[in-house]
Amino acid sequence: MNTLHRIQSAIIRFGNRNYGKVGIIGVPFEKGQRKKGVAHGPQVIRAARLVQELELLGLDVKDYGDISYEVKHVDGVNNMSYLGDFAGCTSCLSEQVQKVLKEGRRVLTIGGDHSLGVGSIDGHVKEKKDVAVIWVDAHADLNTNKTSESGNVHGMPVALLTSELADYWPHLPGMDWQQPMLSIRNVAYIGLRSIDRYERLVIEKFGITAFGMEDVERYGIHDVVYMALSKIDPDESKSLHVSFDIDSLDPLEAPCTGTPVRGGLSLREAVHLMEIVCRSNRLNALDFVELNPHIGSQHDVQLTVEAAIHIIQAGFGYSRRGLKVPKGITDMPLQTFR
Fold first, then answer.
1. Which amino acids does the record list as binding Mn(2+) (predicted)?
2. For residue 112, is the peptide bond before it cis, meaning its omega torsion is within 30 degrees of 0?
3. Is 137 an annotated catalytic residue?
């Protein structure tokens, strides 16, 4: 065992608990969109030593496994593909998120497509009540079944979650467990660059906090994140939820995703975003979604998965300046590590 591995092992053994406990939930769900493969996102992210990489940050990590669900019987709703599967999956996810939070752990949900945000955020709001959401995405995901051109539910989660848009929906069989309790005033977008006319109208009508890539270019990612937080959590009192779609990154950084849009965030900008939110000490839930290992070459998959690990690590305490070593280790003689 080399010196680096000895130090890493010592950090885990002595337990740097500055960052607390994390619970991982896998959601291998891909029926919110039409491209096969995104259901394997949790598998490839875990295979990249996700748990071990988080443990090296001194975290107490518990993997709760993958969500399993029963399809709900639904009918009579037009233009919502696989509504019964979506309702069953997100209902189970909401319950699991509540369970993890009740056990004193922060939640990492790995998908799967972005429709899972309905379940993860619903569970967060039900448990913590006062929640603010940063939605990091190339797309606004604000369509309803009446405005969507595709009927893909992964383009609808923000509209389903927010109370101000509740009247825009018909009754949705199978979704009675979910009530839109999140105010649109508590949601901020970062990374937008592909928005349809209806979504643009909704953003302007409700004054939604939305930072597109042109804003990132104008102000820089550092100021954009702080401006977003000051809008949705001015008193610095809310429980924070980041719902991170890998397509917010430029496809040159993360090519393996179903709806890529050129001109996105760099990996450095995404990592810095997560570092800022982590340092707020209010981040209690992170979704990471839309990584599709069936798209692209083996090199593309490796590039995208590495980006995912870097972003997740930053959200849970990794510092590019180097980690703080627990006092019990700094007091140990150097020969311990030889």
1. 114, 137, 139, 141, 245, 247
2. yes
3. yes
Selecting among 139, 241, 272, 310, the annotated active-site residue is: 139
> What pLDDT was estimated at residue 323?
72
Q: One of 40, 124, 154, 241 is an active-site residue; which one?
A: 154
Q: Quote the CA–CA distance of 92 and 102 in Å, as a whole number.
A: 15
d(CA 192, CA 204): 14
Choice among 113, 137, 199, 287 that is catalytic? 137
Measured between alpha carbons, how far is 205 from 157 in angstroms, rounded to an integer? 18
Residue range 275-306, pLDDT digits in tens: 999 999 999 999 999 999 999 999 999 999 99
pLDDT digits (tens, 9 = 90+) for 7-42: 555 554 444 444 499 999 999 999 999 999 999 999
Which residues does 189 contact at the CB level (< 8 Å), separation at least 6? 134, 135, 136, 137, 140, 208, 209, 210, 211, 212
Report whether 223 belongs to an annotated binding site: no
300 assigned ligand-binding residue: no
Considering 30, 113, 127, 141, which one is annotated as catalytic?
141
Active site residue 63: no
247 is catalytic: yes
Dig out the tokens for 279 from the structure.
């340092």
Backbone angles phi, psi at 301, to 5 degrees: -65, -45
| Rounded CA separation 146/138 (Å) | 21
247 is in an annotated binding site: yes
- Per-residue pLDDT of 51-77, as tens digits, reads 999 999 999 999 999 999 999 989 879
Distance of CA 258 to the CA centre of its chain: 16
